[in-house]
Amino acid sequence: MHADADSQPAPLSPRKTKLIIGSIGLLLLLAALDQTIVSTALPTIVSDLGGLDHLSWVVTAYILASTVVAPLYGKIGDLYGRRNTVFVSVSLFLAGSMLCGVADSMTFLILARAVQGLGGGGLFVLALSVIGDVIAPKDRGKFQGVFAAVFSVSSVIGPLLGGWFVEAFSWHWIFFINIPLGLLAVIGFAMNFEPTGKRVSRQIDWAGAVSLSLGLAGLTLFTSLGGRTFEWLSPEIIALAVITVVSTVAFFWIELRAKEPILPLGLFRLNVFWVTSAISFIGGAVMFGSLTFLPIYLQIAKGTTPTISGLMLIPMTVGIVIASTCSGLYMARKDLYRILPIIGTSSLILGMVMFFGLKADTSTLYFSFSLGFVGAGMGCVFPVITTAVQNVVPRAQLGTATAAGLMFRQIGGALAVAVYGAIFASRMAGRAGAMMDEGGEAMHISPKILAQLPDEARIQLAETVVFSIQPIYWIGFVLSVIGLVFALFLKEKETPNSDA
Q1: Rg of the chain's alpha carbons, rounded to an integer?
Q2: Which CATH number does 266-500 carry?
Q3: Is CATH 3.90.228.20 correct for 9-203?
Q4: CA quadruple 397, 399, 403, 405: dihedral positive or negative?
Q5: Is the pLDDT of residue 439 over 60?
Q6: pLDDT at residue 70 in the model
Q7: Residue 436 pLDDT class (50, 70, 90 cuts)
Q8: Lowest-pLDDT range, 14-28, 66-80, 124-138, 244-258?
Q9: Residue ranges of the domains in the chain?
Q10: What percent of the chain has pLDDT over 90?
Q11: Nearest-CA neighbor of 103 among 93, 113, 94?
């Protein structure tokens, strides 16, 4: 017997409801922050641990792990209860945080970030599911809007907090701080969210989950390691290519036959779903790519401190907040949305064009306006495409379709950061020349070490960073143009939302 997705939850006292939402909101915030909080600390982490050529994997490992497990958590929650599943997710997240904090090598840190992501991916999905357990249907939109804002704001607050921790304490505390806050949140959740005893009998699509995970991991490794760590025609890269292709084909074959597929392929017959999925992928690639490498530009090319580099990313937050608020008001009043992704992708194009002009001596005003346009583009894209999908998919598939949009955004981010990292490290190594140490690894530069270099060396390093980062924004520009093309194909209203 299947529970009605829109059934009225058992009434809770206002105090319990607030504590549950507050606890889950804090857990969601921690998971979202850990996608971006390390970006401003990366130069310092690389200086301590080495491994410049694997720098992007500190971000990619978390995003990739959280992406591949997210579809599973919803169904596991139905089988074993969301209360128990939250505990498992939080335990993995906090264990990963502890391991990250004590990491003494780049390899150890990357593996620990993957463990952290296995827990963080569950928090993304379960936070939205718990709303349905404790909030009446008429009020759910309000709380989901708040949680959506957490994603947007955390994308820029993360780098700011990361910079502050590096300067005030050490980069290890970026991860250690999760432990007391996470324990506080899960205790509040456990004391107020009582098990309902309700279960939905479902079959978990394990084969689909495994094939999807292998395909995503294979593609990410192929794009990040090929031509740099291994030759393109090496056995390792050929094996990764084969794994990627076979797993992807197997995934589609499995999904066509699965009783309850992780990603129902029939959704792609809806114009709004496939168009918004493509835009989500592109938006994730542009957003995570920009955020991961801008702190390196600010700290190494411009010589700012980690805290200041975080503060200089605030214009993106302002752009996101203003654009998302205006977009929400427009959709509420006009009951229309098609024009908003067009405006958003156009704003991203303008921001990427302005990033072409970044130099070591670029003014703060120019940099702020560039970020503001990128933030405004994100604010017009992410909330809108989620709403558009929820308006057209059958209500029984509402959660699956919403999770799919998040999955495509995360996949775009994971692949983009891996590719961007490979390009950046390759160009840095090729241009650094005299800055290579005896082991062949690029010189470890942190803001503190940078301040001790002679003027000529600082200027040369700044020019090298600017040279190495430029292709990232050329790719971001091309992706944004492709996103605009997809946005032009978006239908305003395709089908009414069905209860079927």
Answers
A1: 22
A2: 1.20.1250.20
A3: no
A4: positive
A5: no
A6: 73
A7: very low
A8: 124-138
A9: 9-203, 206-258, 266-500
A10: 11
A11: 113
pLDDT one-digit tens code per residue, 197-248:
555 556 677 888 788 888 877 887 787 677 667 777 888 889 989 999 999 9
Residue for token pair 């979202």: 32
Query: Where does the pLDDT of residue 353 fall: very low under 50, low under 70, confident under 90, or very high at 90 and above?
Result: very high
pLDDT attached to residue 369: 92
Query: pTM for this one?
Result: 0.73
The reply to whether 266-500 shares the fold of 9-203 is yes
